[in-house]
Amino acid sequence: MKVSGLRLYALFYLVFLYAPILLLPVFAFNDGTVIAFPLKGFTLEWFRQMLSNDTLGGALTNSLIIACSTAILATTFGVFAARSSTRYSYPGKAGVIGLIMLPLVLPEIIVAVSLLVVLLGMGVSLSIFTVILGHVLIATPYAIAVLNAAFSSLDRSLEEAAYDLGETRLSTFRLITLPLVMPGIISSALMAFTISLDEFIIAFFLAGEQTTLPTYIYSQLRFPKQIPMIMALGTALVLASIVLLTTAEYVRRRGIAKTGAKDTGGFL
């Protein structure tokens, strides 16, 4: 009885979570500007409008630049911080790590306004660069949380064996440590990329005259005739997310196969 109830709850949860996403392609191909049933017919017009929209293209380009930069920087900082917190002891370690992880519990609106005041006070012009700074600030704690688990599960005897065989710390990290924690690095980069791509509040405050994808979508919601094109955009983003997730899982499994590590579960 308990098992049946748990399965029913899980089914209800999955339907509640994914039903809106499944409706995206339904209305994206619907020949009608009103998002409602019954459907009027099949059309590719909204995808054509999406591809020919220069403003949307610029917003998407800005978001991809920001998301890729955020993923690289946040993951790099995360590797350094996770390595430091799991391998070394130094005065004030708990306080330093706690300060780095603080954006996890701070409301984004507070972070955005604070960054806006500080950057304007320093005379920094608002642009894509300032959005990247804000996104790295909020994405780095998530990267650290993932990488902490990866470094904590790493067998230290492998590194010690490399030292005994004459390898330097740098070569040991490059040849031994880095390949073993690569699944965690891929996970943290993917998480930082996703957080940055759909983040709205910080982009809204720090982008200045630049437009990112979330801010563009928000601005178009005021115009009912633009809603079908937004549905088409959402469908394209879902498909891109599936491709990205599949690629990341493939790379993760390849890394596990090369290192001979135990597969404890991944994205798929």
TrEMBL record:
The chain crosses the membrane at residues 12-39, 59-82, 94-120, 126-154, 175-207, 227-248. This is ABC-type spermidine/putrescine transport system permease subunit II. Keywords: Cell membrane, Membrane, Transmembrane, Transmembrane helix, Transport. It comes from the Bacteria. SUPFAM superfamilies: MetI-like (SSF161098). Residues 60-248 form the ABC transmembrane type-1 domain. CDD domains: TM_PBP2. It is a multi-pass membrane protein. One of its GO terms (biological process) is transmembrane transport. Its main location: membrane. It is found in: Cell membrane. InterPro entries: Bact_Polyamine_Transport, MetI-like, MetI-like_sf. It comes from Rhodobacter maris. GO terms for cellular component: plasma membrane. The keyword Membrane applies. Belongs to the binding-protein-dependent transport system permease family. CysTW subfamily.
